[in-house]
Amino acid sequence: MKEINLPDLPAFGETEYFENRENERSAVVMIPHADSHAFSDYCKLFASCGWEQKEDRRTDTHLYASYSDGENALFINYFPTVRELTVVTETHCGYFSYSDRPRSTAASAEITQLELEDFGMSYVIRISDGRFIVIDGGRDFVPDRNRLYRCLKDRSVHEKPIIAAWILTHPHPDHFHLFVGFMEDHADDVVIEKCIFNFPECTDFAHYPSLADKDLRFDYDNSAPVFMPKMLEQMKQTGAPIYTAHTGQIYRIGDAVCEILASMDDTIHSSNNINASSLVIRMELAGQVILWAADAPFSVSKLPEKYAEHLKADILQVPHHGFQSGSAESEIRSYELIRPTVCLLPVSDYNAYTIFCTYRESTRFLMTKAGIGELITGTPTRTISLPYTPPPYAGKELERSYLSGLDRCGATAWIFTELNTAVADDFRFTILNTTTFKTTVWIELFFEDPARNVRFIKTEVPGNAMRTISVTGDSVDPDALHFNWLSLKAQGIPENAPFAARFTCKAPIVVSHRTHQASYHAPNR
């Protein structure tokens, strides 16, 4: 191997920095609080060491340059708004010899979001010469292997489908496992021209402890140390070149221009969450911009701060299946910058509207306040032709689905009357939470004399759980607020007094009593 001719990094006396080895061939140094001259200083340094500059792109929010010594590569990114500079080294780098050979055939550009047996992510993008870009694939289930192949076969203009690039965003089972099984079944049925990804080492438990995790629902070891070597072996057998994606790179795949906005380069120093290593890709195709977010937490990679208006996209793949990854504030800020017309949400209707996504603050913002024209969930498989404009009724359909999902879960307010403090059982209620999140329920008691009323009794119900409580028992917090002059603790309970009880919650719940029917429950409108 040719030795890399570089001084020790960081090179200018910086005392605060993070240095990490990403995998066998890549390492990254991140320098926080870098000043405005740092990018130029490092570019001059690398040139003085004999490195040839290959790329140089500069905007108000992002400075990028790449260098080669003929065999190895350097990639430099500086983001003035957050004052972060990263230098990535890669040995035996193939990026500068990257090539793509478009075909003379013609087809319309389109995106297919595939329905999966279990939530995951599988996209097939047809470019204008009839080849495909596949993003992820999902878990390794036989029906999903066949579903992907059938999509490629049915939508191909070539006798044997040509996958111009298979992009894998990060090493979670619901994203990359299918590649292994698909190649076992269909390696001879397709042509794969290149693979693009940037995964950590499969045994890097120091940075990513969850790589060792096994999903006990399966009767085989599906952990990363088992599946990642299988994936690499399958790629090797295809003979297709493999490219390690780094922030700032641009891959031109036919008429699709793919810019890597974020990768493990940006987050390995700050997060042990595998989702944070996700590739975030800004794709230009057929006159539209598609932002592929995979499972990236925008707050960890600091996307809104780094890119600002460059995040604007026509179509957004909603990150982390709409389950929110990172802070809600950062995701909402990103959505305000992206301003998508169409959102692709890789999860079933049931998860999207009934038990999961709706109750994430940032996804609720997308569904109700972002003004998107259409949200396309993962059931059923759906293909859209580019450039794509949503039908005029799609916005109303989103509103209907959102409200219908809330209604299926219960209501946010329940009132019971004709109760009496002399009956111990009148204080016992059952609360059902059919969403997947733990939720807080507040309880108020009303009496004929309003001076005896009690407010802000608090109880919590786990996700997907039913809980029976006594309003005056150990399962509630009677004095949850710092100051509450109408607390249960302060007021007490009068003897032999009629009362009513109100239950309120941000998420829809179902409240029941053994002998009393609810007098009222609020509609979710």
Distance between the termini: 65 Å
Question: Which spans of ≥5 residues are poorly predicted at pLDDT below 50?
Answer: none
Classify the beta-strand content into a percent band: 25-35%
Structure classification: alpha+beta
Give the strand tally.
28
Total DSSP helices: 12
Shape: globular
What is the typical, i.e. mean, pLDDT?
96
- Helix percent band: 10-25%
Biggest pleated sheet: 8 strands, mixed
Report the radius of gyration as a whole number of Å.
27 Å
What order do the helices and strands come in, and which of them pair?
Elements: E1 18-21, E2 26-31, H1 38-48, E3 52-58, E4 63-68, E5 73-79, E6 84-90, E7 110-113, E8 122-126, E9 132-136, H2 142-155, E10 162-167, H3 173-186, E11 191-192, E12 195-197, H4 224-238, E13 242-244, E14 250-253, E15 256-262, H5 264-267, E16 280-285, E17 288-292, H6 298-301, H7 303-307, E18 315-317, H8 328-338, E19 342-345, H9 349-355, H10 361-368, E20 374-377, E21 382-385, H11 394-409, E22 411-420, E23 428-433, E24 439-447, E25 454-461, E26 465-470, H12 488-491, E27 498-512, E28 520-521
Parallel strand pairs: 9-10, 10-11, 10-12, 12-13, 17-18, 18-19, 19-20
Antiparallel strand pairs: 1-2, 2-6, 3-4, 4-5, 5-6, 7-8, 7-21, 8-9, 14-15, 15-16, 16-17, 22-27, 22-28, 23-26, 23-27, 24-25, 24-27
Helix pairs in contact: 2-3, 3-4, 8-10, 9-11
